[in-house]
Each structure stands twice: as structure tokens, then as C-alpha cells.
Amino acid sequence: MNLKKFSLAMLAIAATTNVTQAKSVLINNATIYTASEQGILEHANVLIDQGKIVAINSQTTNADEVIDAKGKILTPGLIAAMNQLGLVEVSAVSSSRDASDKKAKITFDPSLAFNPMSTLIPYARKGGITRSIVAPAGGESIFKGQSFVVDLSGKFDSVLQPNNGVVAAIGAERKGSRAIAIQKLFNTFEDAEKKQAKAKLKAKDKKAKAGSKAEAKRDEKIINAILAGDKPLFVYADRATDILALIKLKQRFKLNLVILDAGDAELVSKQLVAAKVPVIIDPMRDLPGSFDSLHVSLKTAANLIKAGVKVGFYNQDTHNIYQLRFNAGNAVANGVSKSAALAAVTSNIADIFHMNSGKIAKGQAADLVLWSADPFELSSRVEKMWIAGEEYSTDSRQDALRNRYLKKSQLPVAYNK
């Protein structure tokens, strides 16, 4: 057998092995919080196979594994957003930080440094989180780089969507004026638009030489993708006037815009709804962090949702995104319905970032969490978790340390292994 035939044979064996290892799972007798228009389904079942949800309330009993949920709550896996998971291990150790660089600009691709073996990933799974949108911290440019989507499987191929959006920031400056950043945003897209128009005119010119078209630079390609609507633009902004400027930017260039932080968004909620601009906020912000966010409160999330704004929640504390569900629970305590709070950490985030997850519906990725009780309650915990149909443990480094130091030994505690 020659090398080519041998390689093809090995690929065929590998493909067969993967199919064989893929296990179908039927979760019976669950209270399913679908995070979709179906709402809550009592005494329902979900059939998952090949990493996807293939049926809800299926009549089949044929599955490789059947699990009795005993009426407990089954939700989509929670989605963390705009953190540095896998890019930062110990904040105080500079050599373990890869989320930023002084020279970082719009072309910065931090997914190249993502570490799926980070000890923070299993800890995040304990909070019911199955996916994360990881964001760059950037550098001196207003464009901080490009975000990317990962699952929390801990596998080396867990980056699902590299370069899925561009992150920027405007607002108060310690030196200089915020106007420069806003102006630069407008100028960047206007210049790109003019260059595209000139290129089209040249293309129509019959006298134009074949092959004379210059290839766009890397940063130009990214800007063009934003103008075409192929890449969303995520912008950190708090002050109401900055948010209004971003709405004008969206309308002028027809951008797919998402506003992050949005401290004073409540003041311009009507404009956000009219422009169909979603926001992603931390529902725990209750005090002004600067003069840009004087109107933020624990009621902000409820008031934005009531006004009709599409809202997602995030917890930017990379070392504690485990608490995302508790942040959502606090939003419930301050006027957000449970269904809206769940959507803010599942389906809304999935919609904003164009992911095939965040809902329990046929065809969606089988990212699921079975809870001991209400997921927004402090005392509840994850009983089982599936990522792309595969069950994962929630054991973390913290659990291993607890077990190590609770183990009885004749040796002093420090010598326990």
C-alpha cells in the first residue's frame, strides 16, 4: 500500500471511530427552560446526537444513554461574553497575560494565544457556562482587536469562531478629548467607503489594465468587512451623547453595532430601540464609575428590557465569570423576569454573536445544563453539563485543592500530596 492509500485508509478509520464514539443521549422528565418562544416545557425530554439537539419531546426511547432528570431544570448552557478567559491566567504575572499589547490595533488576533488548558475554564463550567466570547484588551488604538468564540471543553480545537467581531472603545480620556476617538471612527469608515467607491469606478473603466487592482491591506479588509455587515462592531461606551454618536455611526454606514457597558443607555433607550442596537451590560453596576455613567443603577437592566432594548448580561471578571448566573439572579431581584434574565445570558448573547447555541431547540448545539434547583439561586449547583453533546465534569482546581488538604494524614498538612 502506498503512502497516499495508507493516509486515506487511516482517515476512513478515524472518521468511523469518531462516529462510533459519538453517543446519543435522551434526557427524560425535565423541566426545560428553552430560552425561546416555546418558553418552559414541563415533564419534557430532549434527544441529543452528533453534538446537536435532534428532537424535543421525542417519542423514541432508543438512545445510547437515558437520563431521568426527575423534574429538575434543564437550560441551555450559559454564555459568558467579553472576558479574557484563556488569555489571562494570573493577573499579577505579566508573562501569563496575552489579552493586550501596546501595539495592538484592529488586526490584533488574540485567539492565537488562547490557552484551553487554563485552570479558569473548569471553574467557569461550575457556573453552568459552556461557551465564552473572549475579547482583547487591546493597546493604544481605539480599535482593541478582534473577539473570538470558544467552547469550554478544554480541547485544543475549542476555538469555534476566530475573529468574529471587532472591539473598540470611546469615552473620557485622561489626556485629550473624547471627540478625537469619535471623529476617528467616522473618518475610518468614511475613508474606506470613498476608497471602495474609487475602486468601483476604476473597475468600470475599460482602459484599466488587467490585474492592476491593488490588494487591500489587512486592516482595510477588516474595515471593509464591517462596512459589508460581515463583522459586527462592539464598542465600549457609557455616556448618553457617546451612545447617540454611535447610533449615528451605525445609521450612516449601516453597521452591525453592539454597545458594551452602556452605563447611561436608559436615557437614550428609545433611540436604541428605533436603531435596533443591542447592548451588553453588567447588571451589577449600581454606582457611577465615572462622569460618563452617572445614571447607572441596579434597575438599569429592567428598565432597558421594559423599553424594548435587546439586552445581554456579562461579568467581565475573568477569574470569576462563574458568578454570571448570580448577576442574572440579582437582575431578577431588581425587576427583570426570570425568562428575560435567562435570555440575557443565553439566547440574546447567541443572537448578538450569531451562534448556533443559547436555546433548547431542534438543530441547536447540544450545550445543556441540568441544575439541582433554580439556576439563579445561590444554593443551586450544576448536576450535569453537556458541551456539543459530550458530558463534562465541573471539577476544578479548587476542588482538587480542597480534597488534597482535607485528606487525613499523619504528615503535617503542608506535606500532603
Query: Which overall shape is indicated by the principal axes computed on the Cα atoms?
Result: globular
Number of strands: 16
Helices, by number, come to 11
- CATH topology name of the largest domain: TIM Barrel
Quick one: CATH superfamily of the largest domain? Metal-dependent hydrolases
Q: Can you tell me the number of structural domains? A: 2
CATH class of the largest domain: Alpha Beta
Under the CATH scheme, the architecture of the largest domain is Alpha-Beta Barrel
Name the helicity range: 25-40%
Mean pLDDT: 91
SSE run? HEEEEEEHEEEHHEHEHEHEHHHEEEH
Structural class: alpha/beta
Characterization of this structure:
There is one protein chain. Helix 3 (178-204) packs across helix 4 (218-227) and helix 8 (324-333) runs antiparallel to helix 9 (338-344). The chain has 2 domains: 18-76 and 358-395, Urease, subunit C, domain 1 (Roll), CATH 2.30.40.10; 78-356, TIM Barrel, CATH 3.20.20. 40% of the residues are buried. The chain is an alpha/beta fold. The longest helix has 27 residues, at 178-204. It is built from 11 helices and 16 strands. The strands form 2 sheets. Strands 1, 2, 3, 4, 5, 14, 15 and 16 form an 8-stranded mixed sheet that branches. The chain has an 8-stranded mixed sheet with strand order 6-7-8-9-10-11-12-13.
Brief characterization of the structure:
The chain has 417 residues and is α/β, with parallel strands linked by helices. Helix content is 30%, strand content 22%. Helix 5 links the parallel strand 10 and strand 11.
